[in-house]
Amino acid sequence: MTPRTVESLAARYGAAYKWYATVAVMLGCVATVLSSTMVNVAMPDIMGEFGMGQDQVQWLSTAFLAAMTASMLLTGWALAAYGPLPPYLAALAAFVAGSLLGGSSGGEETLILSRVIQGAAAGLIQPVAMVVILTVFDPSRRGTAMGIYTLGIVVAPALGPTVGGMLIDNYSWRYIFFLGVPLCLLGAVLALPFLPRQDRRETGPFDLPGFLLLCLAVGALLAGLSNGQRQGWDSGFVRLALGASACAWAGFLARERACRAPLLALGVYANPRFLAAAVVSFILGMGLFGSTYLIPLFVQTVQGYTPTEAGLMLMPAGLAIGLVSPVSGRLADRVPPYLLIIAGLALFAWSGLLMTEAGTSTDFWTFTFWVLLGRLGLGCITPALNSGAVRVLDPGQMGQGAGNINFMRQLGGAVGVSLLSVYLERQTTLYCQAFNNLQTGGHAAADALDVVSLLLSRAGVYDDVSQALRPEAVYHFLSEMVAAQGRMLGFRESFLLTAAVFAVAIVPAWFMRRGGRTKGAAR
Q1: Distances, alpha carbon 113 to alpha carbons 61, 95, 430, in Å
Q2: Residue 240 and residue 119 share a domain
């Protein structure tokens, strides 16, 4: 291929070139982020079709995020070696293949494998898109550029469950895998003329040992976390998995410090403001993907909503983010980014705190408003965080910095979904056990059984009064009541945990203002 630079393309296509390139990469970005969240509303249907439990079905989300986390670190090497176009096209092709595999899968193993392929492709597409947008826009308008980028990484997760719910209710859960294919194909068609490309450069060998250590570290960590509640935190498998993860992380960090061409440029973390931004990005990922996992699950399993209704609950929030994100991006060019980030974190924490009052009788629009507050907070955080993180780095570190920020957000998402799934299951079990213990030896349960038995008899369910005395259906009914209350309180505890984590994130966000100014940058 003949090399093409941003300058030569801008001279050919004029001032509109930056928009052509932005649309080309955002199509792929939107397709990948939609796929990362649409599956959440499909989990009950997939569990029913394949007989999967909650501990298994959560891998549809965590496998995607884990693979994405690892492949994101390919960005720096791929961009340096080939430029944006070849890795972007290769990732789009892989994503299409994974989507077709998932939509036609006949078992849970194939389905999870398809999510791994999709996640690995998405991990390259998103940071490449971020770097391209930052490159084609003038440095003075990078806040605006990040506002546009945010439309893909924040609005798509908000709208994904809505679109996915409609496809599930009207067709099948399999169509959620096919939705991103046309977007990827169109993105590839536009990328061919508008993305920069270069001849293969000598950048040193690819850090394969570091990549394998990272995959082991992330995979073992998630395996240990997801099996801790079911097998016991002191079980041999969980101890082995967490121990292997700790050793792999240590080996990975040691390898990256010694490697001449590392996947993860640890030098950027020597900048205190960038380190603070990375911590906030990790927590942002936990909240964004964790809440997107919890909310559709809550409204379907506790409140009895359909997949479409569960998705529609996020629609107003997605539309609001579409309005707020560009405004937040422009503000990030004019005010210190940490102020916008702190405001966004406070809004999201408040949203999570309000959700701790949610129950079976919570009004649809009340809960929708609570979700809206949190998504407005995310719209404030993301453009300011991306812009504030890269502007404190040297120009030569921009690609690595963008990759690191995306890496931390996705790692936070993978860990957050896994931890929240475990925490939800644990708290639900504890509450159910507590309710059962309270009923043992008391009169409350006996009175409830007698009342339900009498109601069933009067309703004609049992013709003989003697048969209606404590029948099996009555015990089942009481058991379902206890389980429902346990699930509801387990979700409340999970929402409270999310709120607490975001409140704690205000501390590192405050430290983003420390360490002096970067020449020519805002505070």
Answers
A1: 12, 12, 33
A2: no
Distances (CA, A) of 105 to 97, 177, 453, 481: 12, 10, 45, 36
Residues 248 and 339 in one domain: no
Count of domains for the chain: 2
Give the tens place of pLDDT for each residue, 16-32. Answer: 788 888 888 888 888 88
- The residue count for the chain: 523
Domain coverage including residue 248: 207-260
Residue 327 in tokens? 């405004």
CA angle 343, 493, 416 (to 5 degrees): 65
- pLDDT tens track for 111-127: 989 999 999 998 889 88
Residue 479: inside a domain: no
pTM: 0.76
Are 309 and 170 contained in the same domain? yes
**Phi and psi based region of residue 451 (left: phi greater than 0; alpha: psi -120 to 50; beta: remaining):** alpha
**Cα 339 to Cα 146: distance, rounded to the nearest angstrom:** 16
Closest-CA residue to 277 (of 217, 336, 349): 336
Task: State residue 187's pLDDT score.
Answer: 92
